[in-house]
Amino acid sequence: MSLSEFALIERFFTGLGAERGDVTLGCGDDAALVEVGGTTLALAVDTMIEDVHFPADAPPASIGHKLLAVNLSDLAAMGAEPAWALLALTLPAVDENWLTAMRGGLDALARSHGLALIGGDTTRGERLTASLFVGGPVDNPLRRDGARPGDVLWVSGWPGEAAAGLACWQAGERGDDVAPLIERLHRPTPRIALGRALRGLATAAVDVSDGLLADAAHLCERSGVAATVRAADVPLSPALAARGGAALDYALSGGDDYELLFTAPADAGEALRRRAADAGVAVTPVGVITAGAAAVTLVGADGAPLAAGRTGYRHFDGTGE
Amino acid sequence: MSLSEFALIERFFTGLGAERGDVTLGCGDDAALVEVGGTTLALAVDTMIEDVHFPADAPPASIGHKLLAVNLSDLAAMGAEPAWALLALTLPAVDENWLTAMRGGLDALARSHGLALIGGDTTRGERLTASLFVGGPVDNPLRRDGARPGDVLWVSGWPGEAAAGLACWQAGERGDDVAPLIERLHRPTPRIALGRALRGLATAAVDVSDGLLADAAHLCERSGVAATVRAADVPLSPALAARGGAALDYALSGGDDYELLFTAPADAGEALRRRAADAGVAVTPVGVITAGAAAVTLVGADGAPLAAGRTGYRHFDGTGE
């Protein structure tokens, strides 16, 4: 299924059902926003399928962790506070040891974010498929559609580590040098604290699930702006930089790190760095927002456009999401 | 996967994550209840898998209808008002005609209940799998755990038609005599208006998804009571009665009609019938709640226990849910 086919499906389900006055933001962002009394709730869902979104031989605790982390990342991109989750789980068989470990990974991350699993549905199917619904309150939410020309484009943490970690995992590499990469693949950290700290300062935000360039394009499309990304400014972690020439491609096009990509006015840099430091993660300016049709241009140190090796992350079965 | 294995899985995921003061009701009912400001929200999820929960050759519009109907039925059993849905859809391929028809069925039912689809996630997988999350506000919710000895057990509408309809569908029967049964299989009516009308009168409620006897057992287990069901009082629709000797078994053990099974004090009968008539559906007293360990006893016209042909609905692949 190609990315354009996904766009087709998204169009099919946009605008479905009644129009409601309590829906502030529907399909097309990291989460939807609804108003309940005086409270805004962010609501999101993500599906993970064995051998599409995670290797079948991944440690089950990390599968539980990652299932929730991917969903929490959607809340992080809205600046929302995690509160509740419901799990729709399809399993080929019941393996108590596997379930115990998977539950443990999910439970630990849920507790660390004060989130309660409040319901679910279990069905039998050939392949492990898990859809998690998450919700929680948010004041002054971040959205994808607020970026303005002149804003600076920032990224949190170290993009590309998870994609490099996947390549190592599939190649059977398990050494100390690649351990940080594999850890990031299996146990991404949702940037909840950062997302909450960015409210009132960032003009737009998206989580990096498809890749830095691809998600920058999503943000630009929703905001009606263009972006220029400076390849030389994209931060490379020591573990990723040690992978040599492919490092930048992973950082530009690898998803699954669940960092935040966000925009802010040019004079907000000092405040952003301070708030991010309080949230426990570095942030790096990697580009600028410009006027024009939604597009992302990658430029080299001399300012001339570069061709990106890939334009977005494809899941590791090689056929897209 | 047997029913006991499902119970095992439910135990695995009960109590997962943090304890939150805003969660009034967690796993184990038709929906969870959370408090947001002064409003109670009911939140639920259900998964439907091709060839497990619906025949792959069912009309796509009816698949869209049924996916939402099954989820709305969970809200109906809580007395909640449908508001928002998020769809996690796994598809083997993109077929525009199929998607258009499926969307149409979903859209029509959503609009008729004032519900908006506000988000979703689409992934590729071998077999069509759809998990729908629904939510909406509820004052004075119905729950499974309020039945008391002396209460009367009621059922809405005509249980068993969908299960008989499935047998007809699988046997290739398409005559006018079985059309009402097949319609009920493909296009169940969620009892939203009835559920809302029962608030403040019914002491407990559950939707009939596994079968009348099985879901009566679920209600008894949550309420800590027993129930006696009088086989002769279980309503049989004309179309179902025409199926002969198997009709009662369908009505007792067939799921998928998504009727409501509920309890109310013995003196509430007249008020119940009036409210149900206003909601456009008949209700029938089929048994009584008694003190004792959670169990459901089926009795004949003479009051002597009968053996039920089956104790709960198994989905039509014959291996359970």
UniProtKB/TrEMBL annotation, chains A, B:
<protein>
    <submittedName>
        <fullName>Thiamine-monophosphate kinase</fullName>
        <ecNumber>2.7.4.16</ecNumber>
    </submittedName>
</protein>
<dbReference type="InterPro" id="IPR010918">
    <property type="entry name" value="PurM-like_C_dom"/>
</dbReference>
<keyword id="KW-0808">Transferase</keyword>
<keyword id="KW-0418">Kinase</keyword>
<dbReference type="InterPro" id="IPR006283">
    <property type="entry name" value="ThiL-like"/>
</dbReference>
<dbReference type="InterPro" id="IPR036676">
    <property type="entry name" value="PurM-like_C_sf"/>
</dbReference>
<dbReference type="Pfam" id="PF00586">
    <property type="entry name" value="AIRS"/>
</dbReference>
<dbReference type="InterPro" id="IPR016188">
    <property type="entry name" value="PurM-like_N"/>
</dbReference>
<feature type="domain" description="PurM-like C-terminal">
    <location>
        <begin position="148"/>
        <end position="293"/>
    </location>
</feature>
<dbReference type="Pfam" id="PF02769">
    <property type="entry name" value="AIRS_C"/>
</dbReference>
<dbReference type="InterPro" id="IPR036921">
    <property type="entry name" value="PurM-like_N_sf"/>
</dbReference>
<feature type="domain" description="PurM-like N-terminal">
    <location>
        <begin position="28"/>
        <end position="136"/>
    </location>
</feature>
<dbReference type="GO" id="GO:0009228">
    <property type="term" value="P:thiamine biosynthetic process"/>
</dbReference>
<dbReference type="GO" id="GO:0009030">
    <property type="term" value="F:thiamine-phosphate kinase activity"/>
</dbReference>
